[in-house]
Design brief:
The chain has about 260 residues and is of the alpha/beta class. The protein has helices spanning about 15-20, 20-25, 30-45, 65, 85-95, 110-115, 210-225, 260-264; strands at about 5-10, 45-55, 70-75, 100-105, 125-135, 150-160, 170-175, 180-190, 195-200. It binds zinc ion.
Amino acid sequence: MPSAPIRVTVWGENVHEHKNETVKKIYPHGMHNVIADGLREVLGDRVVVKTATLDLPEHGLPPEVLDNTDVLTWWGHAAHGKVEDAVVERVHKRVLAGMGLLVLHSGHYSKIFKKLMGTGCGLKWREAGERERLWCVNPGHPIADGLGEYFELPHTEMYGEFFDIPQPDELVFISWFEGGEVFRSGCTWQRGKGRVFYFRPGHETFPIYYDANVRRVIANGVQWAAPTQGSPYALAAPNIKTPLSPIQSSHVADESLHEHQRKG
Ligand code: ZN
């Protein structure tokens, strides 16, 4: 019996597509729709893809949407600060509870990525339309499935090290740029029960999300980040007064030390 399709929500800031003529020409219906089409193209009926944008109420991510999302993809650049903290909090909780999250390109500076990483998330950058070569450094990883030893993008914005992230659990791609810099372009982390994948390419003035290899990586990332059943995961800190087996100790707990936990 085929397993249920992965429910994906593609979130796009959708700001520069309306303001910048170059971006409008490349992505007339918004980057989110092109990313969503790429997923449908590669994964077919293995996914059900919906989109959400900043301008919608609750940025299109009310509880009923997130509760029915297995993997969320995030692209933002100009309006990270306009994303409401309550929505960021909601996404964060869903990731800890098991929802997968793909953070794309300039999403490195989004509130949700910084909250999940706990570091500054800064990097070097240059927009000179230079060539990028993405080397796969983890060929057995599911995110590298179907790709070659490397692939190239002819014109990109450069992102360079140092990238201020916590040490990735797994590194899948390293980029080399024509101008000389290198960058950890494909990184994974586990946060709670959720899987997080950061993938670098995607500057809005280049047609990156039409590229077959980029589409393949994002599709692989969605499949990799989809939740598995796992074991129970508590988001709270319950006091287990009754032990599973008898404890031989005459210790008497000073309940006053734990007062704040009972209230909170
Ligand atoms: Zn960019």
